[in-house]
């Protein structure tokens, strides 16, 4: 078969048919060199399940990150308190001598409020079983 490839190259035949290439690439099986069917040993599959049960393939109940939820609750409450105080200072309901200090209170309140609200929302939806929400989305501090 390799001789056929060399003769194609020697004769400058640049176009070889796909059948010629298959002959070169795919050698024929010989009955003397291959494994005969009567020498292959087969065995039956075991009737038992080898100790595997369906419960081991089920997902375990999710681990609730209580510390992370407590921290999110704390951030939510402190952020809400700072937003309320900052807005009361800004509107003038609470009189202050330096009104330029009210804006930083609002900014800090918003920065503390947002992550707390975000993680509490995920925890709420995960506890209710909404699709797409899981306790795995909340960072855990037990690692």
Topology (elements, then pairings):
Elements: H1 2-10, H2 18-25, H3 66-91, H4 102-128
Helix pairs in contact: 3-4
Overall radius of gyration: 37 Å
Range of strand content: under 5%
Basic shape: rod-shaped
Q: Please summarize the sheet with the most strands.
A: none
Structural class: mainly alpha
Q: What is the overall number of helices?
A: 4
Helix content: 40-55%
Number of strands: 0
**Distance between the first and last residues' Cα:** 64 Å
**Regions with little confidence, pLDDT below 50 for 5+ residues:** 1-10
Question: Can you write the helix and strand succession as a string?
Answer: HHHH
Mean pLDDT: 76
Membrane topology: Multi-pass membrane protein
Family: Belongs to the TMEM134/TMEM230 family.
Subcellular location: Cytoplasmic vesicle, Autophagosome; Cytoplasmic vesicle, Secretory vesicle, Synaptic vesicle; Early endosome; Golgi apparatus, trans-Golgi network
Main location: cytoplasm
